[in-house]
Design a protein that fits this description.
The chain is of the alpha/beta class and 209 residues long. 50% of the residues lie in helices and 11% in strands. It has 2 domains: 132 residues, Rossmann fold (3-Layer(aba) Sandwich), CATH 3.40.50; 65 residues, DNA polymerase, domain 1 (Orthogonal Bundle), CATH 1.10.150. The protein has 12 helices and 5 strands. InterPro entries: HAD-like_sf, HAD-SF_hydro_IA, HAD_sf, PGP-like_dom2.
Length: 209
């Protein structure tokens, strides 16, 4: 019997385009996209940012240094970084709100503070609850200093909230994240297009809470 629902954010709650920041930073820096992509792969600053090893200031500093432009304002960098986020489907947020009366809801995301602030801005602009209000608790990689698919991050969620793995469903679009959760006994559901989280929720929860 499922009592707890854990959701990924990108491409589960909100659609994303992982290539968009590369395109936008390449345009800003007047560099080929391939060069910017190579810089992203060569340096670990994004991973460090998403696991809390560096903060917003250091992240922006790395971007300026690696793309050789010291004059970019914080807002320019943040805007380009946030182009990964596509339009938010309101019906997904509304569905999560409906589920709160029967299930405990959690968010588990490999993400960065800049992205979370932007998502919350969009939600508030639509008169919707922030992520922190929508879920019983949020687990951001940069706060817990762990990232999926590390088994430790799933164990951290289970233990800190007293969740039983077999009573918990986890929805994610990444196959490696799904495998890691499954190995701990969590009912892991691989969200893949053209289906959306709404389809998978109906399939998983049709037996009721």
């Amino acid at each position: 019997m499922i009592k707890n629902l854990i959701f990924d954010l990108g491409d589960v709650i909100i659609p994303i385009d992982l290539t968009a920041p590369i395109r936008n930073f390449a345009m800003l820096a007047n560099l080929p996209e391939e060069e910017v992509q190579a810089i992203w792969k060569q340096h670990q600053f994004i991973n460090h940012y998403e696991t809390g090893l560096i903060d917003d200031v250091a992240f922006r500093g790395h971007v300026r240094q690696l793309l050789r432009n010291d004059n970019w304002a914080d807002e320019v960098i943040d805007t380009a970084w946030n182009t990964v986020l596509l339009d938010l489907p309101v019906e997904r947020i509304e569905r999560l709100g409906e589920l709160k009366s029967n299930y405990r809801l959690f968010l588990l995301s490999n993400t960065s503070p800049i992205h979370i602030r932007r998502v919350n801005q969009v939600l508030m602009g639509l008169n919707l609850p922030t992520l922190e209000s929508l879920f019983d608790r949020v687990f951001y990689s940069y706060e817990v200093r762990l990232a999926k698919p590390s088994p430790e991050i799933y164990q951290h969620v289970l233990s800190s909230e007293g969740l039983v793995a077999e009573e918990t469903a986890f929805f994610d679009d990444n196959a490696a994240n799904i495998r890691a959760a499954s190995e701990l006994g969590i009912q892991a559901v691989h969200v893949q297009p053209p289906k959306t989280i709404l389809d998978y929720l109906d399939q998983t929860l049709q037996a009721g809470p």
